[in-house]
Write a structure and sequence with these properties.
Layout: H1 2-16, E1 20-25, E2 34-39, E3 49-53, E4 66-68, E5 72-74, E6 81-86, E7 94-100, E8 111-114, E9 123-128, H2 143-156, E10 160-163, H3 173-183, E11 195-198, H4 209-214, E12 223-227, E13 232-236, H5 245-258, E14 264-268, H6 284-296, E15 301-303, E16 310-313, E17 316-318, E18 326-328, E19 335-338, E20 356-360, E21 364-370, E22 374-381, E23 403-404, E24 414-417, H7 419-422, H8 424-430, E25 432-434, E26 441-445, E27 452-459, E28 464-471, E29 476-480, E30 487-494, E31 500-508
Length: about 500
């Protein structure tokens, strides 16, 4: 009798000590840090410890060389959320981990995540928002659409997920319990977690929900993250508090300090400045506080949510004479895309503007590929997620059976070229090669946003003399030409993907 009682107690203890509801959060440099969060049931005995390393030891917790206890615990939404903030990690590296409760010896399945590169390697992002139900207390209402969007994330394996808010309808513990369970579908079949960058929506009624469940850098839930070596700076703004005042001042100061060094600048927030669904009001306060800053400081692409429909605008600038204060500027303008549809009930796209490129109404997420030369944005229609193949090591290809939105005005891919690299005046004033004539060492200056360039030297007969990839440091590099014969040569400078930057005629003496 005593033995049976003991076994029953131990089994019960083990069940209630399991960790669950795992997520990876990007709230600092994603090349060297990552935050692992999970729910430790409040009824459990003890708390799990994270064991991790760069070698995969499966569930053998004792073989992992590093361990860390939770840095923060949150009791929000009747959960017991633990956050482990991992720092000083190696860039572009897989980290394997398990969670183990030292009291019950219960160990989770092995999972892993990858830190991002710290150079200007190509990155893949997913962006979207509005995964809430249809407004009833039923947490299952419209849930399949959310599940499909989550499945699609696991299949395209992005470097980061920008989530624009309205996770649930009423911001209740029951809804969050299901939402976090559903989020487990974003984990790949191999056990890989993908980092979320969350924003607050109007259905996050508690101002601290995003901070308490995702450990974002500030309790006001607006912040910025840099990806790669100044490849992308991404701003997460909070449209549910004062958009002027402290938030706008912070945005302006950060743009002034950081934007000139970035290949690209992105932003996300929940409520659209100019919604494309007629039931939504125009948000003039956001227009006044943000649109001018976006244009002045070269924000390239903005993700909006809230309206539960699909839109892509032309590249826009603020213009008091334009429709609702905007007009097209194809060179320096900002693209606004959205608006939600991560499973929330879709609405009509019935409020297009003269500067709207395309709109629609269906369940979708944005899929964005970024390198320093260009952005490629696809809109994935998510309803057939279970039929879509999972990507392998090459995450920059379209998996079998994927359905992409293909409006006549855009096609399947919206391409945004880096105007700085294709603007002759910009290149003319930012590329210099000296001395000319030269003898041994050539000094070259190029736009400082570049990390590497390809250089080729040809003689006057068109024969290739030199072909190298050069690392750019603070906008400059040198070329050793001591082995090159005297005479006229032509230097061609291009990006690592082959986009021409400049060609110079030089004389070797």
């Amino acid at each position: 009798m005593y033995k049976i009682t003991f076994i029953a107690f131990f089994v019960s203890l083990s069940v209630f000590s399991q960790s669950e509801k795992y997520r990876l959060i990007i709230n600092d440099d994603p090349a060297t840090s990552g935050t692992i969060a999970w729910h430790q049931p409040i009824s459990s005995i003890g708390s799990s410890i994270l064991y991790y390393g760069t070698e995969d030891f499966g569930s053998d917790w004792n073989s992992y060389p590093n361990s860390q206890e939770a840095d923060r615990t949150s009791l929000a939404q009747q959960m017991h959320t633990k956050f482990v903030r991992l720092t000083n990690l190696q860039p572009n590296t897989a980290y394997y981990f398990v969670l183990r409760n030292p009291i019950t010896n219960v160990t989770s399945e092995r999972m892993f995540f990858k830190t991002l590169p710290n150079d200007q390697s190509r990155l893949s992002f997913v962006a979207g928002g509005d995964s809430r139900t249809d407004g009833t207390p039923d947490v299952f209402a419209n849930r399949d659409a959310r599940l499909n969007a989550n499945r699609m994330v696991a299949k395209v394996k992005p470097h980061a997920i920008f989530f624009g808010g309205d996770f649930t309808f009423a911001d209740t513990p029951t809804e969050w319990d299901y939402w976090l369970d559903d989020w487990q579908l974003t984990i790949s079949d191999e056990g890989q977690l993908f980092g979320i960058v969350p924003a607050r929506g109007n259905h996050e009624f508690n101002p601290s929900t995003v901070y308490d469940l995702f450990d974002v850098p500030t309790s006001d839930s607006y912040y910025a993250i840099t990806f790669g070596n100044n490849l992308v700076r991404a701003y997460t703004l909070n449209s549910e508090i004062s958009v002027a005042g402290d938030q706008a001042l912070w945005l302006e100061n950060d743009l002034q300090e950081n934007n000139a060094d970035q290949c690209w600048t992105l932003a996300q927030y929940h409520t659209p400045i100019r919604p494309h669904e007629s039931g939504k009001t125009e948000n003039d306060d956001q227009y006044d506080a943000w649109a001018g800053l976006f244009y002045e400081h070269g924000v390239d692409l903005v993700f909006e949510s809230d309206s539960h429909m699909v839109k892509t605008t032309k590249a826009l600038k603020p213009d008091v004479n334009g429709e609702l204060g905007f007009s097209e500027d194809p060179i320096n303008g900002t693209y606004y895309v959205g608006e939600g549809c991560w499973g929330a009930p879709t609405r009509n796209n019935d409020d297009d503007k003269e500067w709207t490129l395309a709109s629609g109404s269906f369940n979708q997420i944005k899929w964005v590929w970024v390198d320093c030369e260009r952005i490629e944005m696809r809109t994935i229609m998510t309803d057939n997620a279970e039929e879509v193949a999972s990507l392998g090591d090459n995450i920059f290809e379209e998996p079998d059976n994927i359905e992409l939105w293909n409006p006549e005005s855009i096609g399947e891919v919206l391409v945004i070229q880096n105007q700085a690299l294709s603007n002759p005046d910009f290149v003319k004033t930012n590329v210099a090669v000296y001395p000319n004539p030269f003898k041994g060492i050539l000094n070259v200056e190029v736009p400082s946003i570049l990390e590497k360039v390809n250089i080729t030297l040809y003689d006057i007969n068109g024969r290739l003399i030199l072909n190298e990839t050069k690392k750019v440091i603070k906008g400059s590099f040198t070329i050793n030409t001591t082995t090159i014969s005297n005479g006229m040569v032509f230097l061609r400078i291009s990006t690592t993907r082959g986009q021409a930057i400049a060609t110079k005629k030089l004389l070797k003496e």
